[in-house]
Design goal:
binds guanosine-5'-monophosphate; binds zinc ion; five-stranded antiparallel sheet
Length: 117
Amino acid sequence: MSDNCLFCKISRGDIPSRKVYEDDELYAFHDIHPIAPVHFLVVPKRHITSLQDVSQEDAGVLGRMTVLLPQLALEQGCRPGPEGGFRVMVNNGADGGQEVPHLHYHVIGGPRPWKRD
Ligand code: 5GP
Ligand code: ZN
């Protein structure tokens, strides 16, 4: 947990968000500026700055996150099968275009066109 981190605050409920999913280790919520009909973020509750900072002890939670993503994508309105699908995007560090320094997976989908194709 990091006191000054926006996504730590959101995942522990100190700052409101539109929740998609929560368990002991993970929190998912709608992006405040969606770029597609479906756009939510999934974060580990434990503060990890980016994929540049993961260690072996994070393998379990990140594995669970991978299994959870397609499930949540369908629940949020992404279409199944090859004609449907969704995009998963993870920005890491300044060169990677990361704006919020708490590891988060964007899940983006729904019928096109999107605001940014
Ligand atoms: P990044 O550029 O770091 O990969 O993405 C940060 C994302 O967080 C952006 O898509 C932005 O819209 C979203 N975001 C920033 N601040 C907030 C907030 O306070 N609440 C929510 N729900 N999303 C936020
Ligand atoms: Zn954090």
